[in-house]
Amino acid sequence: MPSTCLPASSQTYDAGAKPASSRFLDMTDRSAGGRRRRSSSILQVYHEPPETLEQMSDQAVIPNMNANWTNAKGAWTIHIVIIACLKILYDVIPGSSQEASWTLTNMTYMVGSYIMFHYVRGIPFDFNGGAFDNLNMWEQIDNGAQYTPTKKFLLSVPIVLFLLSTHYTHYDSTYFVINFLATLAVVIPKLPFVSKSLT
Questions:
Q1: Is 30 strand, coil or helix?
Q2: Where in the cell is it found (predicted)?
Q3: Cβ distance 109 to 128 under 8 Å?
Q4: Residue 109 is assigned to a structural domain of this protein
Q5: Does any domain span residue 131?
Q6: Do residues 176 and 169 make contact, with C-beta atoms less than 8 angstroms apart?
Q7: What separation in angstroms does the CA of 120 have from each of 37, 68, 114, 115, 142?
Q8: 90, 84 contact by CB (below 8 A)
Q9: What is the pLDDT of residues 64-94, one digit of tens each?
């Protein structure tokens, strides 16, 4: 059947043929194994581009006030104080059991820790020219070095809190699963293969 409208280049195509520069896959294409190749994946992982030389230079010019407080006196103590205050707050709620109190304490600390250390990117100060805009706080602590005392402490706090909450919920399977998933959501982003290292 002749076509009445021709492309500007005066090329014609058969009904079953695809143009040479088509971005669409031919569904009849087969790989060596005889199976059709997948065109895309449902889950795609975003990878941050590597830091440029300018960004690394800007990061080294002035100390990062957003992350340096984690090495200051009392920075470790505040985590224990926050956990104790949360436990007292949930104990005061009428009708709250010890199991629910420990689970709520664990969940609240884990959500707050995740938001603070892994969700928010950049820094609230404008004195460094955006050098840390692509980094979350965990990646900014100790200039991205892994296994520093501060990072070891911040990794151990959720694990110890999970163990305490598991013990005081009397190893109930429902509370265990809730506490375990909350702990995993905070511990996995802290591991070296997930967080971006600056060094």
A1: coil
A2: Membrane
A3: no
A4: yes
A5: yes
A6: yes
A7: 38, 16, 9, 6, 17
A8: no
A9: 778 888 988 899 999 999 999 999 999 999 9
Residues in the chain: 199
Tokens coding 181: 């998933």
Do 128 and 58 touch, CB atoms closer than 8 A?
Answer: yes
Taking each helix axis as running N to C, give the angle between helix 98-114 and helix 149-168, from 0 to 180 degrees, rounded to the nearest 10. 160
Q: How far apart are CA 58 and CA 66, in angstroms?
A: 15
Domain that holds residue 126: 88-190
- Structure tokens that stand for 136 in this block: 């979350």
- Element spanning 112, H or E: helix 98-114
Residues 6+ away with beta carbon under 8 Å from 98: 91, 168, 169
- pTM score of the predicted model: 0.68
61 domain-assigned: no
Q: How many domains does the chain have?
A: 1
Phi and psi angles of residue 121, each rounded to the nearest 5 degrees, phi first: -110, 155
Residue 77 lies in a domain: no
Question: Which residues are CB-neighbours of 137 under 8 A, at least 6 positions away?
Answer: 66, 67, 116, 117, 118, 120
Residues 79 and 153: their CA atoms lie apart, in Å, by 10
